[in-house]
Design brief:
There is one protein chain. By secondary structure, the chain is an alpha+beta fold. It folds into 2 domains: about 10-120, Rieske [2Fe-2S] iron-sulphur domain (Rieske Iron-sulfur Protein, 3-layer Sandwich); about 130-325, Naphthalene 1,2-dioxygenase Alpha Subunit, Chain A, domain 1 (Alpha-Beta Complex), CATH 3.90.380. The chain contains 5 helices and 18 strands. It has helices spanning about 150-160, 165, 205-210, 275-295, 315-325, and strands spanning about 15-20, 25-30, 35-40, 45-50, 65, 70, 80, 85, 105-110, 115-120, 140-145, 180, 185-190, 190-200, 215-225, 230-235, 245-250, 260-265. Strands 11, 12, 13, 14, 15, 16, 17 and 18 form an 8-stranded antiparallel sheet that branches. A 6-stranded antiparallel sheet has the order 1-10-9-4-3-2, with no helix packed on it. A 4-stranded antiparallel sheet has the order 5-6-7-8, with no helix packed on it. Helix 3 crosses helix 4. The two termini are about 30 Å apart. The relative contact order is 0.17. Fe (ii) ion (FE2) binds near residues 164, 167, 168 and 285.
């Protein structure tokens, strides 16, 4: 299965930038192989549209924002937050602006300091990632980077804890302890929940991250597939009660390329000067995953017989079922009114 073969994937929200990065200039982004532009409108909301001017197809992202309006670099047409053209400099101002002079907007919103877009008809809201905006937890962004790997392969890897003993043998994994203790898998619609306990290595950088002594520890991950390309893993260290909640989102740039975003929420109120050292382990772990995943076939088999599965692969087998069910659904053409208004969120 390639991303482009499942139209339903378009019907979810995906991060495309940090909120702080959509400021005074239009920003180009690519999703599902198509070019879009995001800009901050006069009312402070982020807006997004197909990156093509209705006049002569110029790239609007090469333009600029004036008085909250997106200005085309070719002939200076200006578009407001609703995408309507409000000025055609070469035309007689007494003449009406043609109603077709508008950009093709897509839904855009902000949450968790991220800009999210949906280019289809939403099947769900921007995902509710509880700890990421709940009092008592500190939100820390770790990375947003382009990976040459497909979105389902990256999420499959996140749901697959048994690889840690091998891919992460130089960081958190212990190849001397490859067996896991896992509980039952719970399905709720397209959401999957399960818990798994692994023996984790505490090296020097993990020591700074967890406050635990160097050696081995039992680490339980309460994992959730929140949406097809959104993962949440609540890691609990049994010795000290530390919660390190990891969020991974994958924005499909195309069949083989993904904008990977990772952020965490911690319950130990870490001061900002410690954030770099706290996130160092996660960055190392992700670099290990990236090095492997960028060489894995981006085509992701959703039929259960193509690849082999063991008991330790139950979670990722369930993931294939979720994606297969989604692939079999009809295109979503009847939008929920609340989500389809195009109103800034
Ligand atoms: S192409 Fe955009 S104003 Fe002409
Ligand atoms: Fe990994």
């Amino acid at each position: 299965m390639l991303i482009s073969e499942v139209p339903a994937f378009r019907d979810y929200w995906y991060p495309i930038a940090y909120s702080a990065d959509i400021a005074d200039e239009p920003v180009a982004f690519r999703i599902f192989g198509e070019q879009y532009v995001a800009w901050r409108a006069g009312d402070g909301t982020v807006q997004a549209a197909v990156d093509e001017c209705p006049h002569r197809a110029a790239r609007l992202s090469q333009g600029w924002v004036t008085d909250g309006c997106l200005t085309c670099p070719y002939h200076g047409w200006r578009f407001d937050a609703d995408g309507r053209c409000v000025e055609i400099p070469s035309a007689d101002p007494a003449l009406p602006i043609p109603p077709r002079a508008h950009v093709d907007k897509v839904l855009a919103g902000e949450r968790y300091e991220l800009v999210w877009v949906c280019v289809g008809m939403p099947r769900a809201d921007i995902p509710d990632l509880h700890e990421a905006d709940t009092a008592g937890y500190t939100l820390i962004h770790e990375m947003m980077e382009v990976w040459t790997a497909s979105a389902p392969r990256i999420i499959d890897n996140a749901l697959d804890v048994s690889h840690a003993a091998w891919v992460h043998r130089n960081s958190i994994g212990s190849s001397a302890n490859p067996r896991l203790e896992s509980g039952p898998i719970e399905r709720d619609g397209s959401t999957i929940n399960f818990s798994v306990t692994m023996i984790s290595q505490i090296n020097d950088s993990q020591q700074r991250n967890t406050g635990l002594d160097v050696g081995l520890t039992r680490r339980t991950t309460h994992a959730t597939l929140v949406q097809p390309f959104v993962f949440r893993g609540r890691m609990v260290y049994e010795e000290n009660g530390l919660e390190h909640v990891l969020f991974k989102t994958c924005t499909p740039i195309d069949d083989e390329t993904t904008l990977f975003c990772q952020f965490i929420a911690r319950n130990d109120d870490p001061p900002p000067e410690l954030w770099d050292s706290i996130t160092a382990v996660d960055r190392q772990v992700q670099a290990e995953d990236k090095a492997l995943l960028e060489h894995v076939n981006p085509n992701f088999p959703i039929e259960p017989t193509t690849e082999l599965h063991t008991k330790a692969d139950r979670m990722t087998l369930e993931y294939r079922k979720v994606l297969a069910e989604l692939a079999a659904t009809a295109p979503h053409v009847a939008p929920d009114a609340e989500w389809a208004t195009g109103a800034p969120r």
